[in-house]
Amino acid sequence: MNVIERIQEQLGSQPVVLYMKGTPDFPQCGFSGQVVQILQACKAQYRAVNIFEDPELREALKEYSHWPTYPQLYVNGELVGGCDIVIDLFNKGELQNMLTAN
User: Which residues of 62-93 are buried (b: 16+ CB within 10 A; e: fewer)?
Assistant: First the structure.
């Protein structure tokens, strides 16, 4: 399985997928930690992928998503965005709707 197939498998494995630096229990950057806190506040079920465990995936995902930074939050296989966008959607109440529509 090539790296793009792995990304597609991960995105298909669960409706909400977070590509992050570290893990939900031990985020390794503040932005990843903030998105984890927001997802927890929304009581979202999600799959977290630690990009530090797979350098090939970390680089390929930037091209796949056309988004250069992490974290990256996906809902139903579609990129929602990074930390700033997730915070904005959460503050507007839109993220909760996106997450409960699954």
Answer: bebbebeebbbbbbeeebbbbbebbbebbeee
Q: For residue range 63-76, what is the model confidence (pLDDT) as tens digits? A: 999 999 999 999 99
Q: Which residues are annotated as a binding site for [2Fe-2S] cluster?
A: 29
**For residue 101, what pLDDT is reported?**
67
For the chain, the structural domain boundaries read 3-94
For domain 3-94, the CATH class is alpha beta
Partnered with residue 72 across adjacent β-strands are: 19
> Whole-model pTM?
0.95
What are the tokens at 52?
A: 């530090």
